[in-house]
Q: What sequence folds into this?
């Protein structure tokens, strides 16, 4: 997605927040500080989501497109390549600061904020952007695909922004291990000494407090120094491992060329009259039998095998997701001196199973058309004797087993909650899943998947993340602010019936309509891409 469009969206969002601030201006104390804090938090999360996608593909896109060997043939050193790939992306990300700076200056006229606090906040976000760029660059160097690079970026970001939480977990596990050998539990007690330092290393803690405090404190904060040092260390680490993790790309490119040459030779041999049985001998076998590559619906099999991962990933989702959640509960229980009871375990398993179900569904649906487009196989798929809508439906059908298997943690958690909980817990769970607002959330999730699939036909990376950010973050914020303004202007009239029945029914109708419209847009977009 164009960074010009993203900056425009950011500007429109802040303009909307500014309008809302004007509406509630007379009902608030220190409105300038609250407005500046809201802008900074929006900028923080916007930069985190978009920047993570933008930075984590700096080197990965060269690996996936097999252009990194050509880049290395220019004679550029690893240092020059890393600087050339990271600095322009960092400059694009820093343009977001130019978007929010005028509004931060405007917040001074509202009162409740000091110029030194605003300057400190801008410098803090600047240093944070430098750190985030180096986290993404390091992940891009050590990973071979964009999804893995984004996952590693998210993990390293959590270490950088929540160091105290991770250290508490590690210290708790170490104390538990020491206590098993009769040693005293002392490591957790030592955390109080380093806790202030760890809190000062996180920009999120600083944005919510000290950067907008009402005192003439120093503009340059410890968080900025710490994050610049971390960014420098990550760049050095990327430089040190660059040769090791990118030298294989040249070998892979050579192997691809050799494989293509071998395939061409094999194809020529297959068509020659002197080798009539070559095609029969080259059919793939598995366990002494011919592989079942021809289903009644070949496109469904293709999506099932190459997007959802086939039978191996099916069993990994069925067993791995509940096992991972239960293992995490056990580890955290040992770290924090106590395991939760059965009801709490069932509740945790249910909610985290739902989260992992959403992540799994978004991941595989976001790849189904994106892969066909960028591997140049879309035209061949659309040449089949069926409509484009039937083609999309067939591909989607093959993803259903993997999607359902991804909900194993949710299903197991619900069953465990019904078995271990009281009668009221079971009735509450049944009431929750049959509530009209839950049905509306299901429709909203389906609409998000449709929007993500549509966006994946335009952008190569992060389409589902953008769709979730738009529909689960941007839209609720807009609706909450607008609804608050409506209630504020209407004097708080009783709207219980509207919010309980009419509003969810209206939203479900809108979601179904939008899904139909987006489905048609997807088909038209695919036909347009196939004709190019």
A:
């Amino acid at each position: 997605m164009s960074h010009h469009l993203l900056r425009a969206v950011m500007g429109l969002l802040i303009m909307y927040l500014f309008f809302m601030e004007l509406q509630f201006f007379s009902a608030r104390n220190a409105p300038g500080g609250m407005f500046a804090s809201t802008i900074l938090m929006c900028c923080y999360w916007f930069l985190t989501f978009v920047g993570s996608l933008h930075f984590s593909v700096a080197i990965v896109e060269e690996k996936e497109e097999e252009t990194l060997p050509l880049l290395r043939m220019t004679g550029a050193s690893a240092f020059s390549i890393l600087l050339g790939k990271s600095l322009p992306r960092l400059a694009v990300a820093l343009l977001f600061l130019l978007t929010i700076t005028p509004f931060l200056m405007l917040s001074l006229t509202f009162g409740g904020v000091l110029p030194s606090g605003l300057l400190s906040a801008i410098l803090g976000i600047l240093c944070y952007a430098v750190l985030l760029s180096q986290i993404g660059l390091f992940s891009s160097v050590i990973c071979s695909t964009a999804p893995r690079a984004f996952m590693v970026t998210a993990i390293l970001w959590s270490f950088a922004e929540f160091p105290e939480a991770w250290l508490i977990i590690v210290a708790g596990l170490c104390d538990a291990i020491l206590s098993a050998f009769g040693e005293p539990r002392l490591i957790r007690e030592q955390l109080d000494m380093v806790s202030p330092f760890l809190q000062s290393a996180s920009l999120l803690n600083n944005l919510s407090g000290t950067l907008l405090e009402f005192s003439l404190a120093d503009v340059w904060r410890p968080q900025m120094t710490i994050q610049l040092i971390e960014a420098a260390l990550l760049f050095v680490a990327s430089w040190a491992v660059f040769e090791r993790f990118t030298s294989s790309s040249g070998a892979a490119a050579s192997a691809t060329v050799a494989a293509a040459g071998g395939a061409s030779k094999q194809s020529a041999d297959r068509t020659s009259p002197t080798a009539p049985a070559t095609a029969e001998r080259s059919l793939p076998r598995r366990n002494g039998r011919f592989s079942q590559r021809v289903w009644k619906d070949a496109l469904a099999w293709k999506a099932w095998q190459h997007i959802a991962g086939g039978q191996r990933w099916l069993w990994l989702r069925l067993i791995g997701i509940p096992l991972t959640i239960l293992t995490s509960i056990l580890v955290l229980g040992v770290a924090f001196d106590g395991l939760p009871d059965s009801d709490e375990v069932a509740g945790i398993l249910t909610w985290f199973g739902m989260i992992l179900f959403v992540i799994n569904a978004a991941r595989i649906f976001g790849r189904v058309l994106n892969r066909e487009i960028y591997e140049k196989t879309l035209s061949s798929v659309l040449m089949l004797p069926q409509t484009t809508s039937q083609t999309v439906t067939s591909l989607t059908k093959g993803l259903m087993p993997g999607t359902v298997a991804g909900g194993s943690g949710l299903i197991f958690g619900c069953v465990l909650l019904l078995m271990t909980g009281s009668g009221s817990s079971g009735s509450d769970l049944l009431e929750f899943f049959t509530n009209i607002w839950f049905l509306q959330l299901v429709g909203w999730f389906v609409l998000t998947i449709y929007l993500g699939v549509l966006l994946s036909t335009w952008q190569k990376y992060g389409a589902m993340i953008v769709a979730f950010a738009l529909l689960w973050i941007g839209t609720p914020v807009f609706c909450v602010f607008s609804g608050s303004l409506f209630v504020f202007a209407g004097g708080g009239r009783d709207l219980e019936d509207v919010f309980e029945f009419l509003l969810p029914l209206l939203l479900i109708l809108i979601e179904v309509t939008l899904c139909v419209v987006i489905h048609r847009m997807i088909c038209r977009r695919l036909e347009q891409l196939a004709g190019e």
The first strand starts at residue 285 and ends at 286. The chain is about 80% helix and 0% strand. Residues 51 and 93 are 7 Å apart (CA to CA).
